[in-house]
Write a structure and sequence with these properties.
about 1150 residues; Calcium-transporting ATPase, cytoplasmic transduction domain A
Length: about 1150
């Protein structure tokens, strides 16, 4: 047979316009997956799967080829120009001008602007075309009414501009967060090397490696391995879909459809008359690998992929969080009352205005039309301005700012918030269910003790780590494995085979081997010698193997977490610990791992890897079946949880290769001894299948996949004698030290009323020992059996039994993901707000079920991340404590702002309303421009000052509020009512009695003097808000303290405590104070200001400072006293009527109505509180 170098004839449907180097267009490749079709695959690639690589210029072993220049910037390549990369265009954020336009289009702003324009025009007309007027002293009155129109317009511009700036910053902050949370890394093969690169940098033709827990980043075709995939989030198909490599899929497809016409061909998704499904090799972007390993070639990326097209169709605005929704509802209720007050004021003033005009002796009867129009406009502007003041647009703004600020700071602390509501919820958390490995511990494991055969070793420098064996038996591991050591060559070879081949860990190319001070080097390999490519060396860490120069820069936190801690191997920490042991003591040369796996014949005499059984947390073990060369011997190597593997062993292998019956009591004693020293015990064993012509044997065939053995059947297979069963080769103890500071973090949680429970796969003795070390168990509770339980036992308990034991339970050992889910479900049923950590694919149900799910940023799978609300970017438990702090801080900051805003809101509206009604000229003591300045203070500036606060030092000394935290507490109502009363009393006295106080003995005062009094009232009102803002820095520091004397403390009464903690607050306070002084000195006509005397200034400042002592007195008063003033039933009636709940009920859907009917006043009901 002769061969040519000419490519095969291209199929008819190939686009002739496409470059010859890449004959298929993006649309043609997209047809492979929409719908998934092997028929289309055969048409595109001429019925030859090898053309898949040829047409995409790729290779199964080497991936795509890029020059050094193209590696640094692939955007100049023909591949990128034709197919693009895996980036999905971001939602274009609104421009600053668009945000200004939206803010300006607010109805109240438009009304004010229109009124301001009319006021300006009338003012100009009055100034230019009406005769001059004179005051009682004969001096001409300056006609400056037009200035007020300009001032209002300027105030509107300022309010609109500040609001747009805040919205713009919010857009930018969340755009950055979304970009970060959507990015992740994946291993791709390019230029024969494995590179860790961003999923955004994937190109068509790339070969990627996949493993259980991965989320498929782009559309592709499985070319090696097999796996089970969940496509429910993409296709809605709830059943797990089995994927096979394309070569096998095409063979089966051809057999099933042999002899059929085109309209009879069955494609992917159909079943044969026998019920068999058409094999599926198509991988859809966004789907999740539930089990299995594999390698895929990318065919569609970015907007050409299924996931990309879906995302482009779903570019919508983010949903509001629960707190934002509750605040919006509160704002709407307040707005209604503001509108009612404004309408009522307008009607009263308008009726009186008509009376003044129509009555023969009315005050306005003799005014010219322009002046009458001005008087009417003043009424209208005052009413509209009251609406502006009453509408608390700062409430939604405050929560947005607080969440944006908190999430940004949380990111710096190691928490990447994927779901904003989680930030709120963490503040109410009452229980944390934490994994052990990597969260409570450093996840830097090393084998420190154990035995191989009957040879014991101890590599630990810790004298406490003793063995059951006597000291005379203990040697270093290198001594028992050295040449002519205690272990036979066969035992060492089998032990090494289990460690090297039964593993997904791989070598870290950034590691410098300290033994010879040489960097990682790869051996040249001849592709013809590759018997079996062990390609599934995939890890869940984000540490660089060989960093793609074009990849996005890694997160600083993760880089800092791994800096200075370079390890020789990357992957599961248990497996890296075993490989490190092999490197140190078993002559495993660093840099040779990949070659050993690709060609295991020379060293291990293994000719074929028949089956890989990945480690799964549900069964606690992983295995591999190998076939030895020139024989019919298949051997099953297994490693996993010590007691699970050893309990299934029938025999034990000695160091001289002799086989003896296993003494399980002795083995269990050794495991217990390791566990008591807080070591993770791991058993390694094997089982032979001699005279086996093919794999698997009939008795252990997997019914769903006849080509594989069923893992459960394989482990449970009985044996006839010592040699035919599962043989224990050794047990090792792995040490994982506690993270620095974890003891303090756990203590902080306990002090804050948050119960920490450890959920681990370790046996119960190891788990208890570690829990004691990190303070989850005290010395007293360590001895109480009810404080720890094993997962299998926990799941057999009834619901009532679980509820009874959970208050004392602190440790769950040997737990499966289902046990964790059951624990979370029970805790939530008991009313707890539960946070849970998880790293595995099977943890996804528990992460979804929890109120807040934390996934691991370093060790977690992509499925776990997708199911979580917050990603712990450093896998550190201390970050959970930070999340609790910031969650509480967000809630407290919002409630501080609500307190301040309602004080100003109530006072400003009542003052303007009453003073307008009482005025013969129908004018408010606070002009429209002054009210707009007050509105700016209480909305935007106060939101910036209070919503950006940091957690105070005592925030973890308070108990959690629980699931239904009200927005307004008794302590808040106390402060709102008391400060409102103070401000109204002070301003009413100054407004109505100012003439008697400052101009005593005079029956009449001049217009200028009256303007002085009005300006002083305005000045006093602003300084009252200034000092009330200081008072609002304290909120619930004394909650729960019922004794008057005990409430007198610095934490409760010192409003200046930690004042420099928040520079935003100081800056805003400075802006308010300086601006007010400038307004009072230079505001003049626009702000209706007359020069103040020293006495007036002193009065304004001193009256403003009254907020501080009144605030202190209110905070000394116990909350229970305030609760007595507001009986619950009376308050519920008040809330029902004035909270407009009777209107809301009309718009409820069925679910809401049922929730209303089912309100029972239980502690967990969100409506059970008397305070909103």
């Amino acid at each position: 047979m002769t061969t040519t170098d000419h490519p095969p004839t291209m199929p008819e449907n190939i686009d002739p316009v496409a470059p010859q180097e890449y004959p298929l267009t993006p649309d043609q490749l997209a047809e492979l997956h929409n719908p998934k079709s092997l028929t289309q695959f055969k048409n595109l690639f001429q019925d030859d799967p090898q053309n898949l690589f040829k047409y995409l210029n790729s290779s199964l072993q080497d991936g795509i080829k890029l020059t050094e220049t193209e590696t640094k910037n692939y955007r100049h390549t023909q591949r990128f120009k034709l197919y693009s990369d895996n980036r999905i265009p971001e939602r274009v954020p609104k421009t600053f001008l668009q945000l200004i336009w939206e803010a300006f289009n607010d109805k109240t702003m438009l009304l004010l602007t229109a009124a301001a324009v009319v006021s300006f025009v009338l003012g100009l007309y009055e100034a230019l075309y009406t005769p001059p007027e004179y005051d009682p002293e004969g001096n001409p009155i300056k006609k400056v009414d037009w200035i007020e129109g300009i001032a209002i317009m300027i105030a509107v511009i300022v309010v609109v501009f500040v609001g747009a700036v805040n919205d713009y910053q919010k857009e930018l902050q969340f755009a950055r967060l979304n970009k970060k949370k959507e990015n992740r890394k994946i291993i791709v093969i390019r230029n024969s090397q494995e590179l860790l690169t961003s999923i955004h940098n994937l190109l068509v033709g790339d070969i990627i490696t996949l493993q259980t827990g991965d989320v498929i980043p782009a559309d592709g075709v499985l070319v090696e391995g097999q796996c089970e995939v969940d496509e429910s989030s993409i296709t809605g198909e709830s059943d797990t879909i089995k994927k096979v490599k394309v070569f096998n899929a095409l063979k089966t497809f051809d057999v099933i459809n042999e002899g059929k016409s085109n309209d009879q061909i069955l494609d992917i998704g159909f079943k044969t008359p026998n019920g068999d499904k058409i094999p599926d090799c198509m991988l859809i972007s966004g789907s999740k690998l539930l089990s299995g390993l594999g390698k895929a070639i990318i065919t569609s990326v970015g907007t050409n992929s299924i996931h990309g097209r879906t995302m482009m169709a779903l570019k919508v605005e983010p949903e509001s969080t629960p707190l934002q929704q509750r605040l919006s509802q509160l704002a709407d209720s307040i707005s209604v009352y503001g509108c009612v007050a404004a309408i009522l004021l307008f009607l009263v003033l308008f009726i009186r205005f008509l009376f003044y005009i129509l009555a023969p002796n009315g005050r306005f009867h003799d005014l010219d039309p322009a002046q009458k129009g001005t008087k009417f406009l003043n009424i209208f502007i005052t009413a509209v301005t009251i609406i502006v003041v009453a509408v608390p647009e700062g409430l939604p703004l405050a929560v947005t700012l607080a969440l944006a600020f908190a999430t940004t700071r949380m990111t710096k602390d190691g928490n990447l918030v994927r779901n904003l509501r989680a930030c709120e919820t963490m503040g109410s958390a009452t229980a944390v269910c934490s994994d052990k490995t990597g969260t409570l511990t450093e996840n830097v494991m090393s084998v420190v003790r154990g035995f191989v055969g009957d040879s014991y070793f101890n590599d630990s420098d810790n004298a406490l780590l003793t063995s059951v064996a006597t000291d005379s038996h203990i040697k270093k591991s290198i001594e028992i494995f050295k040449k002519n050591g205690e272990c036979s060559e066969n035992l060492e070879k089998d032990f090494l085979t289990n460690i090297v081949l039964n593993s997904t860990a791989f070598e870290n190319k950034d590691f410098v081997d300290s033994a010879n001070n040489l960097p990682f080097s790869t051996d040249e390999r001849d592709p013809s010698q590759v018997k079996r490519a062990f390609e599934f060396v995939r890890t869940h860490t984000r540490i660089s193997i060989s960093r793609d120069d074009n990849s996005d820069s890694g997160d600083d936190l993760i880089q800092n977490a791994i800096k200075g801690r370079q390890e020789p191997y990357i992957g599961s920490k248990t497996e890296t610990a075993l490989l490190t042991l092999a490197k140190k003591s078993m002559n495993l040369r660093f840099g040779s791992l990949r070659a050993l796996r690709e060609n295991p014949v020379d060293r291990f005499e293994v000719s074929e890897i028949a089956q890989i059984i990945p480690f799964e947390s549900t069964r606690k073990w992983g295995g591999i079946i190998v076939k030895y060369k020139e024989s019919n011997l298949y051997r099953f190597f297994i490693k996993g949880a010590a007691e699970i593997v050893s309990n299934n062993c029938h025999s034990k292998r000695n160091s001289d290769d002799s086989i003896v019956t296993l003494n399980k009591d002795q083995i269990n004693k050794e495991i217990e001894n390791l566990a008591n020293d807080a070591l993770r015990a791991l058993s390694l064993a094997h089982r032979d299948f001699p005279n086996c012509t093919s794999w698997p044997p009939n008795e252990i065939v997997d019914e769903k996949n006849p080509d594989r053995a069923d893992p459960e059947k394989l482990l449970a297979l009985t044996c006839e004698d010592d040699d035919s069963g599962l043989i224990l080769d050794g047990i090792v103890g792995i040490m994982d030290p506690l993270r620095e500071g974890v003891r303090n973090s756990v203590e902080q949680c306990q002090r804050a009323g948050v119960t920490v429970r450890m959920v681990t796969g370790d046996n119960i003795l190891t788990a208890r020992a570690i829990a004691r070390n990190c303070n989850i168990l005290s010395e007293e509770t360590y001895l109480i059996p009810e404080c720890a339980i094993e997962g299998p036992k926990f799941r057999t308990l009834t619901k009532q039994e679980r509820i009874k034991m959970l208050p004392n339970l602190r440790v769950m050992a040997r737990s499966s993901p289902e046990d964790k889910r059951l624990l979370v479900e029970t805790l939530k049923g008991m009313g707890d707000v539960v946070a849970v950590t998880g790293d595995g694919t099977n943890d996804a149900p528990a992460l979804k079920l929890a109120d807040v799910g934390f996934s691991m940023g370093i060790s977690g799978t992509e499925v776990a991340r997708e199911a979580s609300d917050i990603i712990l970017m450093t896998d550190d438990f201390a970050a959970i404590v930070d999340a609790i702090k910031w969650g509480r801080c967000v809630s407290i900051s919002i409630k501080k702002f609500i307190q301040f805003q309602l004080i100003v809101n109530i006072t400003a509206v009542i003052l303007a309303f009453v003073s307008s009604i009482a005025s013969e000229d129908e004018t408010s003591v606070l002009t429209a421009v002054q009210l707009l300045w007050i509105n700016l203070i209480m909305d935007t500036l106060a939101a910036l000052a209070l919503a950006t606060d940091k957690p105070d030092p005592n925030i973890m000394d308070r108990k959690p509020r629980g699931r239904s935290t009200p927005l307004i507490f008794p302590s808040t109502w106390k402060m709102i009512l008391s400060q409102s009363c103070l401000q109204l009393i002070v301003t009413f006295i100054l407004h109505f009695n100012g003439k008697e106080i400052f101009f005593r003995g005079r029956d009449e005062i001049t217009g200028h003097e009256q303007q002085q009094l009005n300006a002083m009232t305005f000045n006093t009102f602003v300084w009252l808000q200034f000092f009330t803002l200081l008072v609002s820095r304290k909120l619930d520091e004394a909650d729960g303290i019922k004794n008057w004397r005990d409430r007198i403390s610095e934490a409760n009464l010192n409003f200046f405590q930690d004042l420099f903690r928040n520079y935003y607050f100081l800056f805003i306070m400075a802006i308010i104070g300086i601006s007010q002084v400038l307004i009072m000195f230079f505001g003049g006509a626009p702000f209706s200001i007359a020069n103040q005397t020293k006495t007036m200034w002193a009065t304004a400042i001193l009256c403003g400072t009254l907020s501080l002592p009144v605030g202190a007195l209110v905070r000394i008063c116990p909350d229970e006293w305030a609760a007595r003033i507001f009986p619950e039933k009376l308050f519920q009636k008040f809330k029902y009527i004035f909270g407009l709940e009777f209107i809301k009920e009309r718009h409820m859907d069925k679910d809401d109505e049922e929730a209303l009917l089912n309100r029972d006043g239980s502690p967990n009901s969100s409506d059970s509180t008397v305070f909103f």
